[in-house]
Amino acid sequence: MSLKTPEQILKLACIADVMDFTDYAVELLAYLTVNCGQDKNYNFADNIIEVLSQFPDLIKQGLANLEIFQILKDFLSPEAENFWK
To answer: What is the pTM of this model?
Structure first.
């Protein structure tokens, strides 16, 4: 099975999340954001950063220093972007 549409990728991300494969779900959502994020239905940047901010070890490292943050920063909402400045 090849995933060709954003809808299929989103469904897989949801399944991964339900099955507690959070890291894979985040990767899929990041992929959707980078490749389809101009469509607000597939921009999950704020959600991803919110999820990552729940992990104390990542907070200690500084979320803004994470590679995924650097990749997604152009897709953050103005509110979320101002929060991390």
So the answer is: 0.85
